[in-house]
Amino acid sequence: MTHPVIDALLVALTADPANHEVRAHVARLLAEADRPDEALTHATTVLAAVPDHVEALRVAAGAARALGDETKAASYGRLADALAPAAPTATPAAAAPVPVADAPQAAAAAIPDTADEILEQWSDSEPVAEPTLGTLGQAGVTLVDVGGLASVKKRLDQSFLTPLRNPDLSREFGKSLRGGLLLWGPPGCGKTFIARALAGELGASFYEIGLSDVLDMWIGSSERNLSSIFETARRNRPCVLFFDEMDALGQKRSHLRGGGSAMRGVVNQMLSELDGASTENEGLFVLGASNHPWDIDSALLRPGRFDRTVLVLPPDVESREAILRLHLRGRPADRIDLAKIARATDGMSGADLALVCEQATETAMEESMAAGRVVPITQRHLQDAAKSVRPSIGEWMETAKNYAMYGNDAGAYDELAVYLKKRRR
Which molecular function term from Gene Ontology is one that the record holds (predicted)? Predict the structure, then answer.
């Protein structure tokens, strides 16, 4: 028996087989659809590339158990339990919120004159909706906490933050205090962290949505999930609503044929919510992240939607040094020349650099246990780790190069083309 949502995601995987998050979600849906053999195949494919993927481990455990292989099921389950984050201390369950009727709309709301008045109005309003999907909370970071990436920060300030920080000037030019921004680029370069930092800069709540929070195997449920997510974000304004994996969530409708046609409703619902035809989106800032912007439906990139785009490239040498320093902060270290390590890690993403620091730390910890004393992280530890970690973005760069060279009629990838030319890829 086929299912339209599963079929749609399988179509997406055909175009992007290395998208492990989508594959893990497909595995879970297959398990829920009582197709354990297929679920196990997809889950183990994810685990071959990402051995510590907890969701894939849990799906694999359940699928193996359904197929009668208790030994494998127990093995997958133990590993998933070991890798899963510790559960928070139990607290008494909060009483269910009492439904409250919508208050009548004010006849004529006063227009605030200053940014301070806008922020005061926002801060006075209490959140009235607890999310049932995704994760809602305070950002806890700002752009100061983002290591390096000076050019990205400058572009974000010019195209996104400055208009929002100057409401008087924006109103003079008829610009609304709402916005949509797409962060795109190779994986592991900090797009999600930057989105969180933008929420911190705006003093807004950060509402993070993943693919599994939206997509559901039952027809119509995905659209309802998306509507509920936007409604929760509107009731918690000012709010940065962040969608990860936009290329999977907002696939080009022209590519959705056969089983993939079920995703058309999701794209249409997203367009309706972004336009705010029947609702108010003032104070709601919608951000998206994508590794493959060329797969996003062009309607989502039109004015009033994700009309501003910022390319987040791999960090340059100064940014790599800042990222290394950030990841080594608070750890015992001895006379490390971070500039030298930064020069030796050209082409690495922020995630690759984090892995370098983790491997160096693990080596120092092993030596500490053997010596019976704290052995600090040294230049040797980092150099050895840098040699063992291979840059993870090579495949992405090759794909992106084709779009920059042959699919750039509208100039959407000009900045990427300049970057590739400098690196002579």
Answer: ATP binding
